[in-house]
Write a structure and sequence with these properties.
Helix content: 10-25%
Structural class: alpha+beta
Length: 331
């Protein structure tokens, strides 16, 4: 889908695979996290008490119908999993991500040549855009893109160890979580944690101030009023009431739930989401939550706890990461 459009897209990248502006914007590469109590039973995680709430929202069809759900208490990573943390996992296990392995040629024999190569989907800031056209105008499958090279082969993680790991798939995230003795959150767990005690979604409809989102005209102008044009290091914005950082914005986050159109059909997806058909095949899909740095009020209001989208299981993307949960007794 949209491969002819993608061929003419214009890439404007910094050294680390981040979109850059005409005027340089100083950006932090590390944000200090507050110290946790020395006696914390699970360092790097926070306790999310159980509760009942109204799952979903009313902004887009896929968020409906609203549904009353309850969750038991659990521990959750206070930040998205970082490049440094994922690198520890890879070093310990010699794990090779799906983006590095590439699609199985026996399963996807009909793919264009470039999409048979190992790679991931990368956001590309265009010079101009047809607002009635496909989001494929600013998404490109880039051979050689992976968690190590999020913007393509010429990019690296040097100095970006504290950024969220991206270009990982559901299987990659699940493997990391298993190595840590944890799991990926369910959609309900994730949404309840993001709500931080709010039983309804209506209180978080406005574009958040303490989150990495898009300010300007998506996808051609980003004023970076929040301090970042692309991804931000974890923990640069104020946490929610539970002490969880970046639940909204920065990177979309994988959940363990298979995507079903039970909340409604998402159609072709929002502008900040990878268009359907750009993956290696017709893979199963997972629910992703929280929006990303690409969400804007003029084009994609998915910087909300109730927002949800599908993501192909076997497709890594430059705006998609994850965090883990642990079912264990509370403090």
């Amino acid at each position: 889908m949209g491969l002819t459009l993608l061929a003419g897209a214009w890439m404007w990248w910094g050294a680390q695979g981040q979109p850059v502006a005409k005027r340089p914007v100083p950006e932090a590469t590390y944000c200090a996290l507050p110290a946790q109590a020395a006696q914390s039973p699970h360092p790097g995680m926070v306790w999310v008490p159980g509760g009942s709430f109204e799952l979903g929202d009313t902004v887009y069809p896929e968020e409906l119908p609203l549904r009353k759900v309850s969750v038991s208490g659990f521990w959750m990573d206070r930040t998205e999993v970082t490049n440094a943390e994922f690198a520890e996992f890879v070093k310990a296990t010699n794990y090779i991500t799906e983006a590095e392995r590439g699609p199985d040629p026996k399963l996807y024999a009909g793919l264009p040549p470039d999409m048979r190569k190992p790679g991931a989907v990368v956001f590309v800031m265009p010079r101009e855009v047809n607002t009635q056209g496909s989001p494929a105008q600013w998404w490109r499958y880039v051979p050689g893109a992976s968690w190590r090279h999020p913007g393509g082969p010429a990019t690296s993680l040097d100095g970006h160890e504290s950024f969220p790991v991206v270009a990982v798939t559901f299987a990659d995230a699940k493997a990391y979580a298993k190595w840590k003795g944890r799991a990926l959150p369910s959609e309900a767990q994730w949404e309840w944690a993001a709500r931080a005690g709010q039983t309804q979604a209506a209180k978080d409809h406005d574009q958040p101030r303490d989150a990495n989102t898009w300010q300007g005209i998506f996808p051609v102008v980003n004023s970076a009023e929040d301090g970042f044009l692309g991804l931000a290091p974890v923990g640069c914005y104020a946490p929610n009431a539970l002490g969880l950082f970046d639940m909204i914005g920065n990177a979309w986050e994988l959940t363990s739930d298979a995507y079903k159109p039970g909340h409604g059909d998402s159609g072709d997806g929002p502008p900040d989401q990878v268009p359907r058909g750009m993956g290696p095949g017709t893979a199963a899909q997972r629910v992703i939550k929280g929006g990303s740095y690409l969400c804007s009020p003029d084009y994609c209001m998915r910087y909300r706890s109730g927002a949800r989208q599908p993501q192909d299981d076997d497709l890594g993307a430059s705006h998609l990461g994850f965090r883990t949960v642990l079912l264990a007794p509370g403090p």
